[in-house]
Specification:
The chain is α/β, with parallel strands linked by helices and about 250 residues long. The protein has seven helices and eleven strands. Strands 1, 2, 3, 4, 5, 6, 7, 8 and 11 form a nine-stranded mixed β-sheet that branches.
């Protein structure tokens, strides 16, 4: 059976970190928390649950996660955000993979809780994520703040049963604040990558986002919060390309 590191990056996650760590206890042989200088009880709670904590100023989502993997004791890692936790079925799936790790990586579905409601549509589910990997065979990539793990070409990936539970936003205002923050980061990253915006692009991409999430991805089936998510996602697309236009 392989040895497994659970790797978690944090910043002021005192309300989430305990749930996250407890979901990998008995599965991971090491719990590593890389904390971005939290001012709340995140570190205290993590250490009380037996986690090894490294303090690291935030480098960017992609860079921070690659730093965390590099610091993990074992080559085989499951990478989590602090607001995520394995459900019981996924816990069993990961344990089974540990006893016969015959792939380069394992993917899983992520199920998001928004203001107390599990979201099954809007393009938010199954939201497949590659999180259980051999860290020697890949790296975190993407454009900040939207990171993704990529294995080397030709790698073998297997999909696990169970859900990675994502406790995203407790209030709509939290969602709005994150949109403001993330669209700042995204616009800057796109500008630095040479991507440009225009008013026709802003309008078309915003309209396409709403049509895709609310109609094609059946966001209307999630009721009131489905409407909120789809309209806020549309707003995020608008802001991202509008802020990019201002930068250029």
């Amino acid at each position: 059976m392989i040895k497994l590191s659970a790797v978690i990056i944090t910043f002021n996650e005192e309300r989430n970190i305990e749930r996250c760590i407890r979901s990998v206890q008995g599965i991971a042989d090491e719990v590593l928390v890389v904390d971005s200088l939290s001012s709340d009880r995140t570190v205290e709670i993590a250490e009380s649950l037996g986690a090894r904590v490294i303090h690291q100023k935030f480098l960017g989502h992609i860079q921070q996660k690659n730093f965390a993997l590099a610091e993990a004791t074992f080559d085989h890692c499951i990478s989590l955000d602090a607001d995520e936790a394995l459900d019981e079925t996924l816990q069993k799936s990961v344990l089974a993979a540990k006893s016969n790790f015959d792939c380069d990586g394992y993917s899983m579905n992520r199920l998001t809780n928004y203001c107390g409601q599990w979201i099954k549509h809007c393009g938010w589910y199954p939201d497949t994520k590659l999180r259980l990997v051999n860290k020697k065979l890949g790296a975190w990539k993407g454009v900040n703040p939207h990171d993704r793990y990529e294995l080397n070409a030709g790698s073998k990936i297997h999909h696990l049963k169970g859900d990675l539970l994502h406790y995203s936003f407790y209030t709509i205002d939290e969602h709005k604040r994150q949109i403001e923050k993330f669209t700042d980061i995204s616009a800057k990253a796109k500008f630095e990558a040479g991507i440009r915006s225009s008013w026709p692009k802003i309008i078309v991409k915003s309209m396409a986002k709403f049509i895709k999430s609310y109609i094609l991805k059946r966001g209307f089936l999630d009721g009131y919060f489905g409407w909120v998510i789809c309209t806020q996602s549309t707003r995020a697309t608008y802001l991202k390309y509008y802020k990019l236009l201002k930068l250029q």
